[in-house]
Design brief:
The longest helix has 22 residues. By secondary structure, this protein is mainly alpha-helical. Helix content is 58%, strand content 11%. The chain is built from four helices and three strands. It is elongated and about 75 Å long. The relative contact order is 0.10.
């Protein structure tokens, strides 16, 4: 019995263990990157939302946007800001 398998030219064949190791490395990199990017400054939030820094400060003062404060330092959690933006965009529709 002759069996011939044909794969597209750019197909990569990898064994399960190598795939598992590669996947774990990729997930580690993604988690590291997301931890670093999770907390935003007011400037970063303004850039992300495409508004001015004073606009973000006003939104914080009016408690329109989620933020947290440690002493005098104000920060925004990127996940909270994205969720806030998503919920506000739904209200606009």
């Amino acid at each position: 019995m002759n069996l011939k398998l044909e794969f597209p030219e750019d197909t990569l064949i990898i064994n399960r263990e190598d795939l598992r190791e590669t996947f774990q490395e990729m997930m580690g990199e993604i988690l590291q990157r997301s931890e670093k990017e999770e907390v935003m400054t007011i400037r970063e939030a303004a850039d992300y939302l495409k508004v001015s820094i004073p606009t973000v400060r006003n939104m914080i003062a009016n408690k329109e946007i989620p933020f947290f404060q440690k002493g005098q330092i104000i920060r925004l959690n990127s996940r909270d800001v994205k969720a806030w933006m998503w919920s506000n965009s739904k209200e606009q529709l």
